[in-house]
Amino acid sequence: MEKIKSAIIGMGYMGRIRYDAMTRHGGYEIVGICDTNADSMRGYDAPAYSDWRDCISSSGAEAVIVCTYNNDIMEITCHSLGTGLHVFSEKPPGRNLNETREMKNAHQKSGLVLKFGFNHRYHNFIIEAKTLIDNKLLGDLVCARGVYGKAGTLEFDKEWRNDPVISGGGILLDQGIHMMDLLIYFCGGFSQVHSSVNKLVWQEMETEDSAFAILKTDDGKVASLHSAAIQWKPKFDLDLICTNGGISLNGLHTVSGRYGEERITYFQRDMNQTVKNLVKPIEHTMCFDRNDSWNVEMTEFYNAVVKGAPIENGTIDDAVNVMELIEMVYVRQ
Fold first, then answer.
1. What domains does the chain contain, in order, with CATH numbers?
2. Hey, how many other C-beta atoms are within 10 angstroms of the C-beta on 95?
3. Could you give the CA distance from residue 78 to residue 186 in angstroms, rounded to a whole number?
4. Half-sphere exposure (CA, 13 Å, Cβ side) for 255?
């Protein structure tokens, strides 16, 4: 198997996840890891660097995996593309839409591979739901409802994620971006936005702890979103309503297990009107006990770099689309 010489910038939680997924894949030779915290790099069999520029220039990397704080993503991504290196970057794609557009410009000039880590598209129940929707097995999708929330910590207001200089936004940009991306994935682009971005519990915090949005596409699909750090029991729920039935996605397979069992339930309305009221359609439920999304993403990136295969999900256009929508939510509250 041809190896991609790769450097991972940022060895925090996501850096470790990517390291493990790349190791499992077998097609990556990790020639450098980088973090400002030396303790984060202990125990890894790869050259360690404290400065990302030094890592990129000295490691001999052909690809860079960006797992840093949000405020460093654009600079590292643009620099890497500009020096001839392929890039896989974690979400969000920068702190704001302008930074995302800067990366798009760098990508267009480079002709190299650029992929962003919107791994929720690769959860098993999302794949199943997309198949049902794309094949119109339940008719046409007309609306969607998404709730994605977690419990903020005791010192949530002091976390880097809520420092706008570092993060660029609050819970919507940190976690809700995944649900926003999924709504675009299923419904298409939204042109109308009504929103309410709030500090409901951490009222002195500079960023939001809750965001609501009502979204509408040009062809009439409607979606709602609630992204929250005040969902004291973590929740992931996505309902997709079609002309002839519906799909419910509940739970999420994570390392912590806090979101509960990952399952998809779909049903078709009684097309023959054999039941007077249609309150008890036959349901079909599938449950999943594994999350392959990290592996699938690193396989897709590998195939794009080595085999010239297209990036299917997490493209720069996907990144621009979701950041345009998030900016609309922040501005039009």
1. 4-119+295-313 (3.40.50.720), 124-252+254-289 (3.30.360.10)
2. 22
3. 30
4. 6
Residues 125-168: pLDDT tens digits?
999 999 999 999 999 999 999 999 999 999 999 999 999 999 99
SS3 281: coil
| Tokens read off for 238 | 């996505």
Q: Which residue is it, tokens 């990129």? A: 56
Please answer whether residues 73 and 296 qualify as being in contact, where contact means their C-beta atoms are separated by less than 8 angstroms: no
Asked whether the beta carbons of 56 and 80 are under 8 A apart, the reply is yes
3-state secondary structure of 191: strand
- In terms of C-beta distances under 8 Å and separation of at least 24 residues, what long-range contacts does 72-79 make, across chains too? 72/9, 72/10, 73/99, 73/103, 74/99, 74/100, 74/102, 74/103, 76/9, 76/52, 77/103, 77/106, 77/114, 78/102, 78/103, 78/106, 79/53
For residues 108-133, one letter each, b for 16 or more C-beta atoms within 10 angstroms of the residue's C-beta and e for the rest, the string is eebebbbbbbbbbbbbbbbebbbebb
Residue whose pair of structure tokens reads 């519990």 in the numeric block: 201
Instruction: Provide the sign of the torsion angle of the four alpha carbons 20, 24, 25, 26, taken in this order.
Output: positive
Instruction: Write the pLDDT tens digit of every residue in 296-313.
Output: 999 999 999 999 999 999
pTM: 0.96
Look-up of token digits 């790869």? 46
